[in-house]
Protein: tRNA-2-methylthio-N(6)-dimethylallyladenosine synthase
Organism: Enorma phocaeensis
Amino acid sequence: MEPNRIRDVLVGKTYYIRTFGCQMNLHDSERVSGLLDSFGCLEAASPEGADIVVFMTCCVREAADQRLYGQCSSMKSLPPSPSGHRVIAVGGCIAQRDGEGLLTNVDNVDVIFGTHSLGHVAELIARSFEDGSRQVFTPEDVQDEATSLPWHRAVSYHAWVPIMTGCNNFCSYCIVPYVRGREKSRTIEEVVDEVGGLVRAGVREVTLLGQNVNSFGRDRYGHPRFAELLRQVGDTGIERIRFTSSHPKDLLPETIDAMAEVPSVMPQLHLAVQSGSTRILKEMNRRYTREQYLDLIDRIRDRIPGIALSTDIIVGFPGETEEDFLETLSLAQTVGYAQAFTFIYSRREGTPAARIEDPTPREVIQNRFDRLVKVIEGTAYDFNQQALGRTIPVLVEGFSKKDSHMLQGKSPKNQTVHAPLPEGWTPEDVVGHIVDVEVDRARTWYLSGTVAGEPR
Ligand code: SAM
Ligand code: SF4
Ligand code: F3S
């Protein structure tokens, strides 16, 4: 379909995107949004007011599938859209995994597009509007074009910057490599140019994205060049650099050096451990032992004292025993995580772990999960206590949902910080700016205090 024809069909249509899953999907949604904007569409505040509803889906755990089916069928009871015809599009990882199969599971879906075909979404939607047809496009082997698409960023001061797509690790429980393909790195120049442009546009913080950023460049240059990337991104003048995710097996000493030496790299690291038991780690195909992980943590802390460490942990991997689980508990305690995303293992069809039978009752796994959450709450609380009495630069993101005068932002260590908006200040004075906050209260999941000094 000619671009002009697509524009004729889409101009003035309203759209709403609902995103599930990880930051990769969040970023992909920003590209879909940018593309629809470029054809004259307008963002709507809710599905009710939208002619186009897009679901960006995730299949990393089972609950997500059920949620998508529910969300799609709830669209049937909406009042008619402004143009009188609503097109429902499903993208992201479930779309990539199921392709055409989704049409039978969800009878009111009009468009299905995969993780490698974002650039086609406007055309697919336009075709569906034109003749009411159902459009499916989920190829596996295409050049990723997402980073060349127009970009509609959700906020002005922060940007998600993908540095690579895909994953080569095939952890035995994980579906991601099957729905996102193999690792494909951008060039250093492309990423650095992009961040330079963002700095000129007023962006203060970037988060570099990849399933395993430590292996950035391996596919393109023959060896990882993440440390070099960090240094060059640091030279762009961006004030805050974060990145996610890091696989422990690929975190090189030169990367720890770059993290320690580049001032804009924030003192925070997300390093997924998944389990504290070497036996389970082997079953998970993680390719490090408990001891190697703990040794890595020591080396990071030596070089970057006070760094905030966060992680992902799976409870109830098939065959996990109480002894294995106790090793996870003790590892979490030893590391003293500032934050952890904890998950109950979810069987994913097509992954090697899905073939392992496990008779462990659900209640036992739930009980382990609850005990782990308690330990993490303790370590997070202890970590936050260290901020008491300190003055911390906070990048303000907005206001607390409970109190519209309570500004909310992030510390360099990625802690949520609250402080009352000073008398006479407006939200525009602070959102997207950095303010110093004197911390006088430290809870498990946030710090609070008072603003000291002017926003900058
Ligand atoms: N690539 C990232 C890494 O390895 O750190 C993780 C990406 S994955 C989207 C996020 C987290 O989901 C994983 O770290 C893991 O803890 C969790 N996860 C993945 N597959 C899972 C499964 N089958 N059941 C439960 N949790 C799972
Ligand atoms: Fe999944 Fe492992 Fe790849 Fe992370 S590194 S996306 S957990 S396969
Ligand atoms: Fe989910 Fe796909 Fe991300 S499966 S976690 S949205 S890569």
The pocket of S-adenosylmethionine (ligand 1) is lined by residues 22, 60-61, 173-174, 176, 211-212, 245, 247, 272, 274, 312, 314, 343, 345-346, 348 (CB under 6 Å). The longest strand covers residues 391-399. The chain is about 35% helix and 20% strand. The two ends are 48 Å apart (CA to CA).
